[in-house]
Model the fold of this input.
Amino acid sequence: MEVPQHISIIMDGNGRWAKKQGKLRLFGHNAGAESVRACTEYCTEIGVKYLSLFAFSEENWERPAEEVNGLMQLMFKYVIGEHDTFMNNNIRFRVIGNYEHLPEDLMAAVHREEEVTAGNTRMTMILMLSYSGKWDILQAARHYAADCLAAGRQLPLDEAGFSNYLATAGIPDPDLLIRTSGEQRISNYMLWQNAYTEFYYTPVLWPDFRKNDLEQAISDFNNRQRRYGKVE
Ligand code: FPP
Done:
């Protein structure tokens, strides 16, 4: 069985999961943190090299302040609380997104954790926070334009070169993208990077998503034929 090098997950359905139990949305997000732990552990075990998780989009800032603040607190608690897991399992931790929008205390904790785990090599775990695909492409275009201005000429640019301007520079494109909760859309997530990614949708709500669901997604991935637009 081929283990995807990079698995990415759009973690969806926390709100519906909570509602089903008559609880507040934040209850679902808290429960979702347990699924994050389970998936990180399993991916590390089976040899996945990159696990990226869509934890908060640029659009999510429009949610009610109470939910946004609760989510930021949850992220903070997670970054602080997972330190031993990252170190004991040789996991490199990273956050990718629009840092400008993220609270200072959270960013300070993130940068500390990124620094101490920078030498870890077994798997890189990436939280996509305040991230959106269009934002990423736009910031890349701006950086490229700034480099051209600085150089005083139009610099050559190809697809690989443009990828290096993206916030995900250096990280291979996702092989498998999983979205939970039955929704089947990309929701402004890694638009450039997912050009040839295999998509897998499951009705399972994120707080219920566990190792066996991930196994099923990987097994499905193994039945796909990736042709990258060519013929066999
Ligand atoms: C989508 O569910 C989920 C989010 C917007 C937040 C993702 C956050 C977590 C999974 C929390 C745990 C993560 C970490 C890293 C600690 P939704 O609120 O859109 O659910 P709904 O579609 O049912 O309303």
About this structure: The CA atoms of residues 10 and 179 lie 5 Å apart. The radius of gyration is 18 Å. The mean pLDDT is 97. Residues 11-16, 25, 29, 32-33, 36, 55-56, 60, 74-75, 78, 127, 181, 206 surround farnesyl diphosphate (CB under 6 Å).
